[in-house]
Amino acid sequence: MASESANFSACSPDVTAHSSIMIPSNGPQSEMNTVENTATAPSSSAIRVVLINTYELGRQPFGLAHAAAWLRHAGHDVVCLDLAVDSLQTQLLRGADLVALHVPMHTATRIAVQALPRIRSLAPGARLCAYGLYAPVNEPLFRSLGVDTVLGGEFEPGLAALARQIAAGERAPQSGPVINLAKIPFLPPDRRGLPDLDSYASLILADGTHRTVGFTEASRGCRHLCRHCPVVPVYGGRFRIVPVDVVLSDIRSQIASGAEHVSFGDPDFLNGPTHALRIVRALHDEFPGVTYDATVKIEHIVRSRAVLSELKQTGCLFLTSAVESVDDGILERLEKGHTRADFEQAVELLREVGISVSPTFVPFTPWTTIEGFAELLDALVALRLVENVPPVQLAIRLLVPEGSYLFRIPGFETLVEAFDQSLLGYPWTHRDPRVDELQKDILELAESAESTTAPRREIFQAMRQLAYDRVGKSPPPLPADLGAPIPRHSEAWYCCAEPTTQQLIGF
After folding, report:
1. Cβ atoms 49, 98 nearer than 8 A
2. Is 291 within 8 Å of 259 (Cβ atoms)?
3. What is the number of domains present in the chain?
4. Whole-angstrom Cα distance, residue 238 to residue 232?
5. Is position 185 within any domain?
6. ∠ CA 288-290-293 to the nearest 5 degrees?
7. Which of the 8 DSSP states describes residue 485?
8. Could you report the per-residue pLDDT of 113-172, keeping only the tens digit for each?
9. pTM (2 d.p.)
10. What is the span of the domain harbouring residue 380?
11. CB under 8 Å to 266, separation ≥6 — which residues?
């Protein structure tokens, strides 16, 4: 779908005088209304808003906390509910005027779709809104489920305008853009009412000890146009930075609540390297004992050697990087911007500075071969990365959402079937049925591993044996050195993966 970048109008709430921020007005983007950065008590025109997060990688959601800050700033009564931790609660939804569901990823959207009928029954008088990265690309589905406002990109002005409309008793259909890419002011996220940080995934260090994790965002969107990425159809190569003082305020509040490690949720932390370094320098100066991790593209790792040393010095434990494949042909189709050789170089560069790498993959695509999958496993052995990769990562199958840039690959439409609303994507069947059978078997191994304490080495060995059996060969013996365990999050699931049965079972 085409993105609309026109400004979505928002009101200026009545507040008392303190430090000023800027809220977009009804006029051109350059015209702004100055309002004050203070929380206000609910006013006579306030409404009751329930913000619902469904899933965000086991982290306390920034998308709920920042939306809550905007709406509370406008004087509304806001309740936050995170279904990744809590169940739907009748008493919280009763009497809601607005229920807004945050859908930042595929898994979150699948869960939201399952939850919507129950939400409608618990809050029959509420207006429904879906917002976040996956909302605009699934707009028709959400509207068919009774959602009358869909917001993507910089969603906060749209939420504020919707709350104002409801408070005024208006029932007009959505008039602003579905996707807003205008620059907005950021407020310190308001995390009141969210579950404690200890309720979420923790950091597991190499020695097995745990640290409480905070989660924040230093930017939104991405400069890059990887064809399979869900950020691209919404932001189209644009990205927005969150001011350093706002990021530090958010981190500071989470450290006060027990965070010992910070996970940056940016699609690519080094989209703006100067901005990123300002943040980690300030973090390290104020909290030298707090560590962090971030997501960075392979090409940025290769090009940013000097930056890597400073990341290490300021407390970076590991970087997640979407490698996706070791097949250069597949990488070119996905327009990843790196090659297998770049990946190998990035691994060595990070080892030199002492930062662990957590590579992620999409091993099963329409172009994957059984031999190619076995080659991926052998590459992980050669690079001593077996301990770095959660088993579920080796089972992920390419998802094709609405609006995907994959359709820019000549002939790609012949590889997929019609859009399936139940899957929120275009299903595809591999032309070699053995590849689909292998993926199902690898997924079964990965899911069974989730319920056991089997070492990654054992699970990997079983997957490798399975792959080689399908090739009709015997695998070479595994070397003794497959790499040491690295720091990792206790919840190993990813934005482009299908939800598990356990995640859906509550709905």
Report:
1. yes
2. no
3. 2
4. 9
5. no
6. 125
7. -
8. 999 999 999 999 999 999 999 999 999 999 999 999 999 999 999 999 999 999 999 888
9. 0.88
10. 202-490
11. 217, 218, 219, 220, 294, 295
